[in-house]
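Quick one - inputs below.
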Amino acid sequence: METISFAGQLFQYLITGLTVGSIYAMVAVGFNIIYNVTDIINFAQGEFVMLGGLIMVFFHVAVGLPLILAFPSTVILVTAVGILIDRLAIRPIRRPSVLTLIIATIALSILIKGAAMFIWGKDPYDLPAFSGRNPINFIGAVIQPQYFWVFGFLVFIAVALTFFFDRTIIGKAMSACADNPDAASLVGIDVKRMVLLSFALSAAIGAIAGIVITPISLMEYDRGAMLAVKGFGAAILGGLGSFPGAIIGGLILGSIESFGAGLVHSGYKDAFALIVLMAVLFFKPSGILGDIEISKIKRF
Amino acid sequence: MLRIDGLSASYGNIQVLKGISIQVPKGKVVSIIGANGAGKTTLLKSISGLIKIQEGRIVYKEKDIAGRPASRIVGLGISQVPEGRQIFSHLSVQDNIHLGAFLYFKRRNRLEIQKRVERLYEIFPVLKDRTKQIAGTLSGGEQQMLAIARALMGRPELLLMDEPSMGIAPLIVREIFDVIQQLNEAGTTILLVEQNAKAALKVAHHSYVLERGEIVLEGLAKELLDNPKIKEVYLGG
Ligand SMILES: Nc1ncnc2c1ncn2[C@@H]1O[C@H](COP(=O)(O)OP(=O)(O)OP(=O)(O)O)[C@@H](O)[C@H]1O
Ligand SMILES: [Mg+2]
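Output:
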């Protein structure tokens, strides 16, 4: 057995960190979409990822649908869950305040987790990797083909969302709702529909994250909460509300975790993320790319 | 064009509008003057659908529109310039203006929208130099112009304006009232709420005086300008 060089090992940590970080980034992006429209933090965001993974396993492994069909079916189903959440839990709240809505999302995440345990049990599930599991050796690091799928989808999501929010009137209308809901309805924007759309969109992104990561890290019913914490950390690190910030924040957080686990102690893996989160909140609450002025104006 | 019969509205237990009836004939400028807290903003919000009314009818073009959501009422041709501007402060000037055309912002309307935007930039040249600027960084006067421009993008036949002169230097106030006159001459019906009673009475045809949720006086604006009571209370003697 050849010994792995130290440089190769560092490179391995980096690659692993960026892959996991891509998932955090996707969760953070999901947070930001809902936050940008409603000012609320949807703590059920991690559950979308969990559902994405497990429903994909159901369609692809249990039902036997080919990847090309199972993937969109899963995204659609999880999106439907996002829509249901808005319809059944967010919209009916009669005097919504940011805090009551956030608490509602926490309650929902517990509910979804319970339902998932009921359906799938407590065991982790595996999903075949999209392009097999023959690793590529590169400067001493082992790279799974699935890593490329994860990066690829992160890039795809980033490009698609940038286009949507910068170039389309619906995207602008969504931002307008966050900015000033009354004024938005005065120009004819149906604010409730935009909130619905934001839940649908971030559920879809969560589903994609869950689908692409399951072949690497498996998926079980209670993964959502930790993913939500990590994704939230990434969003805060990058600046709440900023999409480029979410992606950078996710990648940094993933890398810190990976290097920390490899070089210090793997048992502290989750602690690193929380330490980073607290450090950011303490030293620069607006995050790396967050706008201080905007963070002052925002209600949360 | 707009007729309001016996409109009552309240926040919780506090009744703010107590059976108000007004008329806004097509092609006119009607102004509503009244002190702080009289209920002027509440009246405009009732018309534009931002708040639910308790009682009464809001008849626009022979249809009772009371109870319809705000996002539907714009489509009928009623745009509101809200009190305190309420622009989308994180978006650019251009985005604010485009969102004003949200309901018909489609590729096939591109030319019409472009033409409207150009016409607005003629009316408000200051906005033209600042299309990419973030709206929240505009000066108060510029923000007010942007709020008016955004409302005009909604193709209003009836424009509701809530204190367009609030917090604005006299020179710019005159400019804004010139715009109101200009818009009216071009055929837009205007319901104007103002604390600046003098300016409002000068530009309006007809006026109502609102006090603590009730109409206490109405008449031709010209006559109200000479009314001794109005002079004393609203025009500063
Ligand atoms: N959201 C609200 N909740 C409770 N009370 C309100 C609310 N909005 C307005 N009011 C009350 O209703 C009354 C009328 O308010 P309104 O804003 O209509 O007055 P206004 O005539 O527009 O005053 P101003 O000239 O100061 O703008 C006031 O006493 C105000 O305190
Ligand atoms: Mg007012």
